[in-house]
Hints:
heterodimer; A: mainly alpha; two-stranded antiparallel sheet; 13 helices; about 60% helix; about 0% strand; B: mainly alpha; Four Helix Bundle (Hemerythrin (Met), subunit A); 11 helices; disordered N terminus; disordered C terminus
Amino acid sequence: MAEFLIGLGLPGWLAWSIAALVSAVLLLNVIAGGALVFIWAERKIAARIQDRLGPTRTGGRFGWLQSLADGIKLLAKEDLMPEGADGLLFRLAPYVSFCASFCAFIALPFAFDVVGQRLNVAVFFVVAVLGLEVFGVILAGYASASKWSLFGAMREAAQVVSYEVPLGMCVVVPVMLAGTMDLVTIGEKQAGWMSNWYLFHDPFTFVIFWVYVTCAVASVNRAPFDLAEAESELVAGFHTEYSGLRWSFFFMAEYGSMFLVSALAAVLFLGGWNGPVPVAQLVGLSEGTGDSAAYFVRLLGLGNLIAKATLGVLLMMWIRWTLPRLRIDQVMTTCLKYCTPIAAVMFAGAMFWQLFLPGGLLPGWSRPAGEIREGWLEGPGGLPAAHPTTSGHNVGVAATDPSDSSGLATRSPR
Amino acid sequence: MTGMLAMDISSLTDVIVPTLATTFRPAPILAALPVAGVNWHSVLFLLFAALACGFAVAVVAADNVVRMALYLVFSLGATAGLFFLAGAEFIGAMQLMIYVGGTLVLLVFGVMLTAQAPLVAIKASSSDRTLAAVAGASLLALLLTAAFSVDAWMAPGSEVVPAPSATPLGMALIGVRVDTPPPGSPAGGRAGYMLPFEIVSVHLLVVLVGAAYLARAKRRKTPRAIDAVASAMPVEPVVASTASGVASGRPAGGAKSALVGGGR
């Protein structure tokens, strides 16, 4: 995009700034718009599961304007702060939560090369930043000067710190299979039919995907792991004292994180932006056909990824309104006695599978596996070779800069 | 058929884009602005550096433990930003994961400690401040002289360094060096870091097992403290032993009972 603007005759600094701004605003809209849709969906799903109707009036038959009405209500609410609260931290906490959730989106690819900033260590970055969201929760719990908030925050801290361990182990498995931490490459490795998805790579990855789902639900603090805001015990947990717009920032951060972990699951295990059937390739469209064909393929991929991530979020809602909340000791038991050992064993299993059966069980079932991926040995003289391609995919795209959106970081100014 | 359609659209855009580029040319006006020649890399570097230093000072200046931890988080986060700016994404993410995440535990302890009133505000005495200022200033002077004595850091770096991936790092940790050696360095002696890596791993494992043992063992073996005291001193009441413990510099049995007596 920045190249396009420079082509229009804009100076480099302005082009980069505009490109960065556009990506940032787009990502912001993913969170905010996603929250609007998901809140409506959550109300409808909760209602249907409980044999109710949910919102029916606002905006027509299905009440699809309900979240907008909620938003206006939140804007109009009085902004309260408890008397004994630490003012600065109390005001800051929602933004800390929201920023952490937002920052993780920067490295998340939405389709091939449709990514805010393509990072070589994207998986690691996303997991690291996701862990920072708990800061906002702890600050909110402390600054509210309320026992309910403090209890909720301490529970959240214990939970998040322990669930990062099995989550990290689950995330490592696709990284090992793909040989890189670059999310774009990991997604591209699973191109083709549905059987190429890492979910179906071997039985171990199939199991570890469900461990990942458990840990992801726990790490974004959703029921049945929502001890930090257990409304039957702690009123509302860490956000008891919040109201109005500040409270809605916590909510947007929560829905943003839900979408994020679902999208991460989609990229790592469910083929990313590659659909179950490679439609675009079957009709002869590939990113090499032409510029607009490449855009069309990417748009298709974008739809795929968003559909998968939305399915993940809906799954989380289904779980939330079906299962009862766990006690804190049960939460810890699930993490330390089940998730961590299972993840460790599955990690070892996937490793041995990759070592001994890299092509899969069926000999005729070709799978692009076993080659060395990042290209540090393929190229002549130790130079990195061209980006590994599967089925001639990115012929037309390889020439363009992979990180063309907000690439202020690593290049010299023009 | 879809392919043909796509080709048509692509040729259409091929026509439109150059036309746009020729008709819409704001460049001359914008290039005349004073910001056009600014080195934005340096500006961002200064911004992040100022943030890191400013919050570091705020850590020292604040008197509330939780706020200190928060400022520390911001300072370390700005440092991570500096790493990202330099293209060292792995180190930057590492900084976020380890340092910022580690401060989380500090924050938790801060929250737990400041539940009591006397620790909410920590006031350092003036002698402490003087001592800290002297130590900090001498360290700063040492580091600054060391930093300014490196010639390569004085000249502004103009060439674009390709961002290295985490792969050479990981390979070096398992004993294979795949990165190209810097020009002028001897070819031999470029061993990997397998041995240090293994030593550190085993060390951490021992620490982990030890921590688990310490956390568990007491609950299993020792009977309740009150029973132990009762069996050790069948006659003397707790209050008397507390007094004797204080007077006689707390011998072993007295200290234990004093602990129990003080607890109730």
